């Protein structure tokens, strides 16, 4: 692979282009929110009691906040509670879409604080999002991710 990159760089330099075109193109926060606004399935990543943990969850977006549900007393709930009042756990949340045939797609990474929603006001807001879980069983704990950073990238293949 390193040889391929060197050949591409040499071809680009010869053609007057200082760098080969990257297959990874960043886009802004606005486009990121537009792409994920309908909700769907994303992956939450955090440092759990057994080490790095990444799990798929159904999610919805409302007012640039991500909502999902989990089971009470689950490993996820226990891992994402700090035990400190008004202190939230830091997480990563990734949503992406790929066309494997065309070798193109996009990926959005949301980093922020996750908060279990338990007050009546919080539960009313979360219920209005309409987020449901595909997983069987009671998923009656709503969680909210308040972003601190949102980044996105288009993914494609190098020309040639």
How would you summarize the topology of this molecule?
Layout: H1 2-14, E1 24-27, H2 29-36, E2 40-48, E3 51-62, E4 65-70, H3 75-80, E5 89-99, E6 104-117, H4 120-129, E7 141-155
Antiparallel strand pairs: 1-7, 2-3, 2-5, 3-4, 4-7, 5-6, 6-7
Give structural notes.
It is a single chain. By secondary structure, the protein is α+β, with helices and mostly antiparallel strands. It has one domain: Pnp Oxidase, Chain A (Roll), CATH 2.30.110.10. It contains four helices and seven strands, in the order αβαβββαββαβ. β5 (89-99) and β6 form a beta hairpin. It is globular and about 45 Å long. The model is unreliable at 1-14 (pLDDT under 50).
Keywords, separated by commas or semicolons:
160 residues, alpha+beta, disordered N terminus, single chain, 4 helices, Pnp Oxidase, Chain A
Q: Could you give a quick summary of the protein structure above?
A:
The chain is an alpha+beta fold and 160 residues long. It contains 4 helices and 7 strands, in the order H-E-H-E-E-E-H-E-E-H-E. It is 23% helix and 44% strand.
